[in-house]
Structures are given as C-alpha cells and as structure tokens.
Amino acid sequence: MQKGYIENKTEECIINKTYVDFYISPIGLIKITGIDNAIIGVEFLDREEKSNTNEDLPEQIRICKKQLDEYFKGTRKDFSLNIRFTKGTEFQKKVWNALLEIPYGNTASYKEIAKAVGNEKAARAVGNANNKNPISIIVPCHRVIGSDGSLVGYGGGLWRKKWLIEHEQERIRNCEN
Predict the structure, then answer these.
(1) Of 4, 158, 171, 177, whose CB has the highest number of CB atoms within 10 Å?
(2) Mind giving me the DSSP string for 90-105?
(3) pLDDT of 24 strictly over 80
(4) Region of residue 82 (phi > 0: left; psi between -120 and 50: alpha; otherwise: beta)
(5) Which of 47, 73, 99 finishes a domain?
(6) Are 176 and 169 in contact (CB under 8 A)?
(7) Residues 100 and 140: beta-carbon distance below 8 Å
(8) For 128-141, how does the pLDDT look when each residue is reduced to its tens digit (9 = 90+)?
(9) What is the C-alpha to C-alpha distance for residues 166 and 119, in angstroms, rounded to an integer?
(10) Is the pLDDT assigned to residue 6 strictly greater than 70?
(11) Structural domain for 62, as ranges
(12) Across 16-30, 38-52, 101-115, 135-149, least confident range
C-alpha cells in the first residue's frame, strides 16, 4: 500500500510542473498545456491570457504545435502525441478515450458514444463529459453531434465546431476527387 501511495505522490509532483505555449489557429488562439512527456490540455481562448510561456518547452509541446499546424493546413488527419488525462472521473476518461475512436471527417451522436462506453442511456452524461474534455481537437469532441444530426454544444463555441467538422469533411471530399 505504501509503495502505491509514494508512486502516486511522485506522479503528482511531476504533473505539478506544467508548461504552457500558444498556437494561433485560423479559428482563434489555442492554449497548449503540457508536462515533461505529455500534453494535458488544448483549449481555445476567447481572449489572450497573460503569457508565462516557458522558453525551454518539452518536445511534446513543440510536436503538438507542429501537428496542429498540419491539421489546420489539411495535411494531418491523425495526431500522434502522448496525451494524459490528469483530471476527470473514470466515466469522463472512458468517454474521452471513446472520442479518439471517431475517424477524421466523421461524426458520432452522444447516444452512439454512450453505447460505446457501455451505457446506452448515458447520452446526457456523455455530453457533460464531452464539455469537460481538456484536450480539444486532439481528443475530437467536436465530432460529436445530436441524434438528429444537429450541432449541439461545444466548449469552444458552435461556430468553431461547425468549422472543424466542415474543415475535415472538405479534406475528405478533396481526397476522393
């Protein structure tokens, strides 16, 4: 028991050292938060934050910025980053992992995600978990839509959700032609 406690405490100490950088996307400023070996946050900002950007950033943050750039240019469909969910309930983490299974350019309903995590009646809870997704775009919560195909809820704003879905679907159409 004591050993497990020490390991958790050590991990908490590592997680406490966070790095922040920013990426200017076509749809607004994105804040990237990371630890030494993983990305723990990607979020849209509606206004600039005072930057305490660390000059000596871990490689994962540099890779994340490069991959976001490729994504927005339409040359990247899948992200290959180390990500870590440092917050959230087990259910939320299960939902966030299920979101990673939605292919680029596709969408899934909240109900479909609820089924995927083993609780078909949990569509509303899936929506709440989706809203708390700390790693936007990379964990593609923007690909989740209402059962009727409507765009419903997105922490970054519905206009961004619409843009992201259209961006991906346009790239898919261009590859087919």
Answers:
(1) 171
(2) HHHHHHHHHHTTSPTT
(3) yes
(4) beta
(5) 73
(6) no
(7) yes
(8) 999 999 999 999 99
(9) 29
(10) no
(11) 2-73
(12) 38-52
* Residue 80 included in any domain: no
Number of domains in the chain: 2
Q: How many CB atoms lie within 10 A of CB 166?
A: 10
Q: Are residues 27 and 94 in the same domain?
A: no
Give catalytic status of residue 13 as yes or no: no
Domain match, 134 and 166 both: yes
The pair of structure tokens assigned to 35 is: 């630890």
Of all residues in the chain, the percent with pLDDT exceeding 90 is 73
- Contact present, 19 and 58 (Cβ < 8 Å): yes
**H-type helices in the chain, by residue range?**
2-16, 59-73, 90-99, 110-116, 123-131, 158-176
Q: Which one-letter DSSP state was computed for residue 141? A: G
Query: Is position 83 within any domain?
Result: no
Of the candidates 50, 169, 45, 163, the residue with the CA atom closest to the CA atom of residue 107: 169
Q: Is residue 135 part of a domain?
A: yes
Q: Which of 73, 106, 131 is the last residue of a domain?
A: 73
Tell me, yes or no, whether 165 lies in a domain.
yes
* Same domain for 172 and 94: yes
Mean pLDDT of the region 61-89: 96
Q: Which CATH number goes with the domain that contains 34?
A: 3.30.160
Residue of 13, 64, 141, 175 marked active site: 141
